[in-house]
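Lecture 7 notes: from sequence to structure.

We start with a single chain of 418 residues. Read the sequence below before looking at the structure.
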Amino acid sequence: MPLPTDTDVSTPKYLRDKYAIVGVGETTYMRGSNMTTRALGTWALRNAAADAGIRTSDIDGMLSYSNNDSTPAPFMAGDIGARLDFYMDCIGGGSSTEALIGIAIGVMEAGLCTCVAIFRAMNGFSQVRIGGTGARSAAPIGGDMLHSRAYGWQSAGQMFSPTFMRYMYQHGTRPEQVAMVKVVHSEHASNNPKAYYKKRYTVDDVLSSRIICKPLHLLDCCVETDNATAIIVTRADRARDMRHTPALIRGIVGRCSKPRMDMHYQTGPIERVGAYYAKDILWPNAGVGPEDIDATGAYDAFTFTSMLQLEDYGFCKKGEGGEYVSSGITRLGGRRPNNTSGGHLCEGYTHGMNMVIENVRQLRHAADDSCPIGPDGKRQHTYDYREGGCRQVRAIEVTANLGWANPMTTSAMVMRRG
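Now the structure, written as tokens:
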């Protein structure tokens, strides 16, 4: 639906549609890359610059999520021939991508730089695995982990499972409903040539896979991959001269948290996630509501994370998440498809950046699926969503990305087609 153009110079309305994502790039989603994160990162950054149609030397700002085994931004910049006027590397899990885009807008608005590249490079399978079982260990135990590991919460699944279990008990959600998140995302991935897992799964497949940490089955958990991803953000008026239809940024909420981070279950229901608070920032900032969104990218480190985010951001009422994700709404061809690339459950694990990349391509009406290329060099989308076919959402105009670091913390972003 058409969205209003705001002329009010108050914040944040003044920033709506002022900045855009103009370039996206990634490496292959793989296991056993035999490459450093430095090599992976430069690969993705060069692809993003080429996608935008700019020189790498045009990049003068760089941000990254650098936890575990990534490489700092200044090293990446030097390798691609960029000199930076501003850079920042941070930690923060799956709430990083949207928050970093918000920071990019802020530093450009402050005049610190003009074109920002954001990247994530990780050997998430072959080197530093999140559960600590890779070839190299993650950082030494410190900070919050001094508390959580005493309770056996070493991996993300172990830390999040109390939230998931309480949710199921409180609302009567059935495992077969939650399993539909994996089923739907696998259908989307089967139409994605670059997805690591392209197999279509059934509910029975999910529920018969081994238990990792109750209530999580193996197929409730994301794929671990080696990869790098990158996006480029600049002012919308500059974007008009670049290669693709820009994805205009309507609004962002960054790293919004519950009142407590360490023992979040002491403040509000344990099954309440950060999105409960973030929605009151995101939708007013963007000037739209859940009903205006054509497709979502809801963080799916686990099937539950996607469902809980969709619920607390207001796409359905609290307690109705199971019905929402199992109703067909989130399928390609449904009212509001979710994670049309297959997301973290199937395409690859990138701490949320691949889902932003996917929504940018969707807004360009240029999803990179298996549809034929026409004489004009563009894909001729068939909107046939059977296996091996199309994954472009018809007439898509507005998207939402919903990031997740943990049940306590979230970031999110709304974009529209330029």
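The two ends are 13 Å apart (CA to CA). Keep this in mind for problem set 3.
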